[in-house]
Specification:
Helix content is 9%, strand content 40%. By secondary structure, the protein is mainly beta. It has one domain.
Length: 110
């Protein structure tokens, strides 16, 4: 069976966490009184890549007197909180509204 990559864009990390919890992709484990959060696909073959914020390639830089780069203007942030999901089956319906099709994905699964 083939794998499908889904590129998801949420309005915020909070919205992403809410939806990923809803579909069972966000998990918490406690060990030695420490709680850790992680993201995983457990009900089918797949994986999750939390990309988070993505920045445009529009920053301006100059070379300083010491030969090191100096930031003239910071790159601007793209809208949203980004997560990539690769699945052997279908994407949960609750995530379908967040699917985007980037012309040049920032990160891809190998």
């Amino acid at each position: 069976m083939a794998y499908t990559t889904y590129y998801l864009r949420f309005n915020s990390q909070e919205e992403a966490d809410t939806k990923l919890t809803e579909v069972g992709y966000k998990h918490e484990d406690t060990f030695n009184e420490e709680t850790r959060t992680y993201y995983a696909v457990k009900d089918q073959v797949g994986d999750i890549d939390v990309v988070g914020e993505i920045y445009n390639n529009d920053g301006v830089y100059e070379t300083g007197e010491d030969g090191m780069p100096v930031v003239v203007s910071e790159p601007t942030k793209k809208d949203g909180w980004h997560i990539n999901v690769i699945l052997q089956g279908a994407l949960p319906e609750a995530l379908e509204e967040f699917v985007v099709t980037p012309a040049n994905p920032y990160r891809v699964f190998a």
